[in-house]
Design brief:
The complex is a heterodimer. Chain A has one domain. Helices cover 75% and strands 0% of the residues of chain A. In chain A, helix 3 packs antiparallel against helix 8 and helix 4 crosses helix 5. The N and C termini of chain A lie close together (11 Å). Chain B has a two-stranded antiparallel ribbon. Chain B has one domain. Classes of the chains: A mainly alpha, B mainly alpha.
C-alpha cells in the first residue's frame, strides 16, 4: 500500500515536470511532434530507473560509508553520463531496433535534470532500495504522461492561428501552465 | 579588443538573454522564482559557476582531448557547483534550504555546459570571463524580473534580500495566489516571453 501511495504521488501529485519543474528543456524541445515525445519518454523511463537504482547503491554503500557525501553531485553526474553512454553502446549492439527508435534522445538525457533530480530526491527523502526503485519508475512514468499529453495538445495548437508574439515557446508555456493546473486537482488523492 | 570584449559582455543582457532568447535552463527559472530573493540567489550561484567554469575550460582548451571534452567539462562544472553548495551551506543557510536540490542541479543546467562548449572552448580566458559574466548577469536579471512579477501578484510583496520585504501592498490587497503556485510559473514565463517578442519585433 505504501508503494502504491509513492507511485501515485510521484506520477500525479508531485509530477516531475509540472509540479517539481525538472526536465523542462526536453519538455518544450521534444513536444512539437508526438513521435519525438514518445521516443523521449521511453528513453527517460529506461535511463531513469537504472540511474535511480545505481545512484542509490552508490550513495548508500560508498559515499555514506566513506563519509564523503559532499562528492554526491560530482559522482552522480558522472554515473549518469557514463550510464547513458553505456546504454547507448549496449542498445546499438544488441537491440538495434530500440536504438533506432530512441536515436538522438539518449545522449540528450545526460543533461536532463529530471534524471539527476529524481536521483537526488530519492536520497533526500531517505527512501529504502525498493521505494527508490518504485519512485524512480513512477517519476519516469509521470514524465512520459505529461510529455505525451502536452505533445498531443501542442500538435493541435500548431494548426490554429496564433498572434505572432505568442507563437511557439510562449503559447507552449501557457499551455503547460493550464495542464499543470489540471494536475493540481490530484492533490487531495493521497 | 576592448570593443569585442564589451560586445561579448552585453550580448548576454539582451541579444542572447538566456531563458528568453535561448530558452535554455528553464528548470531553475520556473522553480525558484517564487520570490525575487530566491531568484537573485539562484542567479548569483549560477553566475559564479558559469564564470569559473568558462575560465577553466578556456585555460585548458588546448589540453583537453576533443573526444572526451564533454566529460571533462562536466567534471569542471560539478567541481564548482560543489564549491557553491558548500559555501552557501556555510554562509546563507536559509537560502540554501529554500533552493534545495536546485543548487546541485546547476550541474545539468544547459546554459553552463552550452557556454563551455559553444564559447569558452574556442576563445581566450579574458573573453570567456566576459561571456560568462554577461550571460550570468542576464540570467540573474531574468530570474529577478520573473520573481518580481510572481511575488508582486502572488503575495503582494517584493523581497530583495534577507527575508524582509522592501515593498508590501496594503492589507486589503487580494493576493492572486495562482502566480506563486506551479502553474503560474509557466503562464508568467510564457506571457513575459510574449512581451519580449512584441518589443523585439518592432
Amino acid at each position: 500500500m505504501e508503494y502504491f501511495e509513492i507511485a501515485i504521488s510521484c506520477i500525479f501529485i508531485n509530477n516531475i515536470l509540472l509540479a517539481q519543474f525538472l526536465g523542462n528543456c526536453p519538455f518544450l524541445g521534444t513536444s512539437k511532434k508526438m513521435e519525438t515525445a514518445v521516443g523521449m519518454s521511453m528513453a527517460v523511463v529506461f535511463v531513469l530507473v537504472m540511474a535511480g537504482v545505481i545512484t542509490w547503491c552508490l550513495d548508500t554503500y560508498l559515499l555514506k560509508t566513506l563519509n564523503v557525501e559532499y562528492l554526491r553531485t560530482l559522482s552522480f553526474i558522472l554515473v549518469i553520463a557514463s550510464l547513458v553512454q553505456f546504454v547507448e553502446m549496449f542498445l546499438k549492439k544488441s537491440i538495434p531496433g530500440l536504438y533506432a527508435g530512441l536515436g538522438i534522445f539518449l545522449p540528450l538525457i545526460t543533461t536532463n535534470c529530471a534524471v539527476m533530480g529524481a536521483c537526488l530526491l530519492n536520497i533526500s527523502n531517505e527512501y529504502s532500495f525498493t521505494k527508490a526503485l518504485v519512485s524512480s519508475f513512477a517519476y519516469a512514468v509521470g514524465f512520459g504522461l505529461a510529455l505525451i499529453l502536452f505533445a498531443g495538445v501542442r500538435e493541435r495548437i500548431n494548426l490554429g492561428r496564433i498572434p505572432k508574439p505568442l507563437q511557439d515557446t510562449s503559447i507552449g508555456l501557457i499551455t503547460a501552465g493550464i495542464i499543470a493546473l489540471t494536475f493540481t486537482s490530484f492533490r487531495g488523492m493521497v | 579588443m576592448a570593443q569585442s570584449l564589451a560586445k561579448e559582455f552585453t550580448k548576454g543582457l539582451w541579444a542572447e538573454l538566456p531563458p528568453f532568447r535561448l530558452v535554455l535552463g528553464l528548470c531553475p527559472v520556473l522553480a525558484v522564482t517564487k520570490t525575487v530573493e530566491n531568484g537573485i540567489g539562484m542567479g548569483v550561484a549560477t553566475t559564479f559557476v558559469l564564470v569559473f567554469s568558462n575560465l577553466l575550460v578556456s585555460l585548458l582548451r588546448n589540453i583537453i582531448p576533443p573526444k572526451v571534452r564533454i566529460a571533462c567539462y562536466i567534471v569542471i562544472i560539478a567541481t564548482f557547483v560543489t564549491i557553491v553548495e558548500l559555501v552557501m551551506q556555510a554562509y546563507t543557510y536559509p537560502l540554501f534550504l529554500k533552493l534545495g536540490i536546485f543548487i546541485p542541479l546547476i550541474v545539468v543546467n544547459c546554459i553552463v555546459l552550452g557556454r563551455a562548449e559553444a564559447f569558452a572552448s574556442k576563445n581566450n580566458p579574458v573573453m570567456a570571463i566576459a561571456d560568462g559574466l554577461g550571460i550570468g548577469i542576464g540570467f540573474t536579471l531574468s530570474l529577478a524580473a520573473l520573481g518580481a512579477v510572481r511575488e508582486f501578484l502572488g503575495a503582494g510583496t517584493i523581497t530583495i534580500w534577507g527575508g524582509n520585504p522592501v515593498f508590501a501592498m496594503p492589507e486589503s490587497f487580494q493576493a492572486f495566489s495562482f502566480m506563486v503556485e506551479a502553474p503560474g510559473a509557466f503562464v508568467a514565463l510564457g506571457l513575459m516571453l510574449a512581451c519580449m517578442n512584441l518589443i523585439g519585433s518592432k
